[in-house]
Amino acid sequence: MKTIGIMGGMGPMATVDLMRKIIMATPAACDQEHIPMLVDNNSQIPDRTKAIKGLGASPAPEMVKTAKRLMMGGADFIIIACNTAHYFLPEILPQISIPVLSIIDVAVASVREKGYKNVGLLATSGTISTGLYQNSLAANSIQCIAPAAEHQHLVDDMIYDGVKANNAGYDTSAIRELLADMQRQGAEAFILGCTEVPVAVSMYGLEGTFIDPTDELAKAAVRFAREETTDDVLIA
To answer: Can you tell me which residues the record assigns to a coiled coil (predicted)?
Structure first.
């Protein structure tokens, strides 16, 4: 059984959500049948969206530190509890010798398997601007419906002012209207393309047909760690 290394802290609550989903996805009857995990909850990694927008320091140096700590600690592969951070993988991979399982790849594979042709994308403005999901979806002939530019801040606000601020009373009425509008545009389901968004769905009781990349990553990591079939597991 392989040891999973989790690059965490982006944010801490999303990291715990990923750990929980790994545990829930593991077919274990006792402690010893669960998968070993090493977690580096590095909350000092700079904000990824600010870096992409040129408004803050690059997270790459701290991400490299975390990746190396996980590798030296005995992790066999790494998963990242942040969608936006995957934009910086080209700077990380040359500095480590273990693979990284991509949350983008496993999420898009799930969309393809479920047969959706039009999906909404709920992600940070940083992730949206990189085209990480849009390009992968387009390569699979799937249309991506992102929020209109003037409404993208609603998703960012829920992530930063809601989940990251641990604000249980955050007003989600505008987000609910946004989801309805994207459905009218043809969204059959929504990719929860920021690891805080699945947490928001749970915290605020949001309703809809959702593709949870965190859950898909957890299930793929379990399959890979247990050395089961890896045909649908894509390694960056």
So the answer is: none
